[in-house]
Amino acid sequence: GDPSGDHPPPHQEHRVEQVMDEVEKYIMTRLYKSVFCPETTDNEKKDLATQNRIRALHWVDIQMLCVPVDEEIPAVSDNVVIAITDIIEMDSKRHIFSAIKITKSEPASADDFLPTLIYIVLKSNPPRLQSNIQYITCFCNPSRLMNGEDGYYFTNLCCAVAFIEKLDAQSLNLDPVDFESYMLGQAFPRRPEVDSGWPQIDTAASIPALAQVNQNLDLLSGLRSRQERVLEVAQSMQSDLITWQESVEREVQEILEKYPLEISPPALSAIDSDNMENDRLPLTPQVLLGNISPEWEARGLLELMIPPLCNALSRHWLFTMARFRNWQPPRVYTATILNILTHCKPSRLLSIFPLDPFPKAFTDLN
Amino acid sequence: MAAGGGAGNKTYSFKVVLLGEGCVGKTSLVLRYCENKFNDKHITTLQASFLTKKLNITGKRVNLAIWDTAGQERFHALGPIYYRDSNGAILVYDITDEDSFQKVKNWVKELRKMLGNEICLCIVGNKVDLEKERHVSVEEAEGYAESVGAKHYHTSAKLNKGIEELFLDLCKRMMETAQAEERAKGNGASQSTTSRRGVQIVDDDPQAATAAGGCCSSA
């Protein structure tokens, strides 16, 4: 027969391609869930293996691969960063080419492109790489997969992955022993001095990343010494507090002996009228301040009295109250304690006020 | 590609791989051919690793896809991934560099082993503008090419010499191969336009079919 009948005229070929694209898109969108990395394959295992492999190769740098890209040039490193991001969407070649072109100022050949692509794949460690490659290989129209520009770059990606999988000391021009120890994370490749002719430059100054690391280390050691100082001070403060509490208790005891509490009739009038100008709510306990000896207040003893008073409250006073059930504590006394308690921070109250003995004593007596 | 086929207004699509060591001028060669530029400061092309060229040879349209390959030794093992399903290979060496010619020999061996005789081989001695520094003799190179069923060409990307001829000749040879293949496939009538050497759907052989059947019947 006449085979020419099978072929559409050239001006229609493009249309045919378009239609095929659409059909392919439709079918594969529908099938994607069931055919992308189906459970019957070990693609997932391979994905993980590849990811781990790439992770283990984190130390591979631009010099080892002879990548013709100079990341010192901002425009280049920008392109590299974009390429690293984009390869995850399988669309990074333009930026790779830009990076190479800016560095070498001539069009990129495969000699340049492949190492750069390998470098980008290593740096980005794209997820599900093997599954994606398998998916494309299995389902892409073969005449396109292998022929056009897409095919070329897909082939390069396959090459990059194959290279990474097989990569050994020889392919990086490294000593096998070094390679092993880098892989095991026991060592890290030393940068060759850029200008060995010059007197040793401070490495921190010449390599920005190293400078950053050093700076961070400095900060960390500074933090550590500061923390040690804080700990020291906190300990001395603790002991100070203990002695202070004891001294206060003693002092309060003395004062209590010197000035025994004399209960005077409450100056109730204060609640409603006298303290209005103090801008305080009339019913808060502060209004009973008048019952606390002004002398105590003047000497700043009020605060100091809290711990012993709380002790008294829990141990002695409630104890007494419980024993003589018909005995009512004087209102003023209660108010005074309430008043003092409001001066006291809750956290301090909790630490001072021993909760334990109180209920025990109380129940014992019942 | 091999999809080539047919008479009339059929379009041939060929894949050609470019092999050769690092500095032999592969890129210059292909840039000269596709863009007619050499070391041009004004080259706008971003890349020279994949280039296409449309040709019209004796009334037939040919789409040429030229695949550059990484020539560094460390990538040697990746070759088969690149040249799979290619119709032609251009193996470039530098006439001033004996080593690069040895590399070409390695490639030839490998290609013949992997792809047999279906691939059209061109061995290209580039940089003939540096004739004075020649280190690979013409006789040796041409003799070798003949012995492995390849054609030998001399080119200079700098002087734009021999390149057009090289590609034209290669295209003609690939067309012949494609046509011969088609005839061999039988009468052209049953040809599948998309069948390719690399991806061929072969009917299950009867053995496999019966094995499957046995499996089902035993269930």
UniProtKB/TrEMBL annotation, chain A:
Annotated GO biological processes are: vesicle-mediated transport
Matching SUPFAM superfamilies: VPS9 domain
PANTHER family tied to this protein: RAB GDP/GTP EXCHANGE FACTOR, RAB5 GDP_GTP EXCHANGE FACTOR
InterPro entries, sorted: VPS9 (IPR003123), Vps9-like (IPR045046), VPS9_dom_sf (IPR037191)
Task: Give the UniProt entry's GO cellular component terms.
Answer: cytosol; endocytic vesicle
Gene Ontology MF term list: guanyl-nucleotide exchange factor activity; small GTPase binding
For this entry, the protein name equals RAB guanine nucleotide exchange factor (GEF) 1
VPS9 domain: residues covered: 44-173
Superkingdom is: Eukaryota
Name the Pfam families on file.
VPS9
UniProtKB/TrEMBL annotation, chain B:
Question: What family is this?
Answer: Belongs to the small GTPase superfamily. Rab family.
What lineage does the source organism belong to? Answer: Eukaryota, Metazoa, Chordata, Craniata, Vertebrata
Which Pfam families did the record assign? Ras
Keyword terms of this UniProt record: GTP-binding, Lipoprotein, Membrane, Nucleotide-binding, Prenylation, Protein transport, Transport
Mention one GO biological process in which this protein takes part, according to its record: Rab protein signal transduction
**Is Membrane a UniProt keyword of this protein?**
yes
Q: How does it sit in the membrane?
A: Lipid-anchor
List the residue ranges of the region (Disordered): 181-203
The domain of life for this entry's organism is Eukaryota
The record ties this protein, via InterPro entries, to: P-loop_NTPase, Rab21, Small_GTP-bd, Small_GTPase
Organism name: Oncorhynchus mykiss
Q: Which GO terms describe its cellular component?
A: cleavage furrow; endoplasmic reticulum membrane
Q: Where is the major localization of this protein? A: other
Compartments reported by the entry: Cleavage furrow; Endoplasmic reticulum membrane
GO molecular function per UniProt: GTP binding; GTPase activity
Spans of biased composition, class Polar residues? 188-197
What this protein is called in its record is: Ras-related protein Rab-21
